[in-house]
Amino acid sequence: MRATAPRARPRRTVPPNHPVANPLVISPSPHWTGLYRTARFLGRSRSPVKSERYSSVQSLTNQGPDRAGRTVADGPADPKTAQILAASREVFLELGYAGASMDMVAQRARVSKTTLYTRFPSKQDLYAATISAECERHGLRFRPEEFDGLSLRDALRRIGRRFVDLVWSEPAIRVFQSVAGESTRQPEPAQIYYRSGPEKGIGAVVALFEHLAAGGLLDTDDPAFAATQFLAALQGAPYCALVLGLGPEPTQEERYAFVDKATDLFLRGVVPASQKSGS
């Protein structure tokens, strides 16, 4: 018999619409192209501030800016909604999306099922609102005009501080690990997570970059690409180590020092000034 080479097993590929990988990490694959187009669409077509469905989650009482330039807020205007979202945050962190249930959240929040389902008709709705509220709490739901009057560097540093305060935090890391780990078997939580968190956050930053470019503060013919590059730079090696559980959460001083360095590198680049002028 003539020996034949064994047939290679076909590689499993992730569908383009399957949000398994971190959407803010740049990749040369076609999947990134789709996410980049989504970012450009979001920057032009959506308001990054108010959720159409969860207006009660977005209604905040201002108390003044913190070190990251956020407007610290009390939370949802409806106390019961705030109570439910605080409980759902705990339950989803402890058990993940698959292990959590509406009954558990109602018990943890000490509200009736009627109260819960009146505000959030399904676990999908509750999970989406929980992710969105966490982004809101960290100041990643904003209008571009909020940064008017700031220099470009100060505006980017302010955004960067908000961003790393959220994505480098222990709860956010745990949620991402859970979503990524379950996504091959259960893609729906990953889709909800992406639509309610990263997608809206990217859209807000793209809208800001377009606003800055229109005002002459940013010199780019592609604000959406610049915005996503900036967000990718803010993750870096520390974020990768955190996701893999290889190090402790950086202190606030360490986070903000990283943001300053990443922002300055983004603005100045690495090409010497003499070469820039001669190009």
Automatic annotation (TrEMBL):
Residues 101-120 bind DNA. The keyword Transcription regulation applies. Residues 1-26, 47-77 are annotated as: Disordered. InterPro entries: DNA-bd_HTH_TetR-type_CS, Homeodomain-like_sf, HTH-type_TetR-like_transc_reg, HTH_TetR, Tet_transcr_reg_TetR-rel_C_sf, TetR_C_Proteobacteria. Pfam families: TetR_C_7, TetR_N. Keywords: DNA-binding, Plasmid, Transcription, Transcription regulation. Residues 78-138 form the HTH tetR-type domain. GO terms for molecular function: DNA-binding transcription factor activity; transcription cis-regulatory region binding. Gene3D superfamilies: Homeodomain-like (1.10.10.60), Tetracycline Repressor, domain 2 (1.10.357.10). SUPFAM superfamilies: Homeodomain-like, Tetracyclin repressor-like, C-terminal domain. The keyword Repeat does not apply. Residues 54-64 have a biased composition (Polar residues). PANTHER family: HTH-TYPE TRANSCRIPTIONAL DUAL REGULATOR CECR, HTH-TYPE TRANSCRIPTIONAL REGULATOR RUTR. This is HTH tetR-type domain-containing protein.
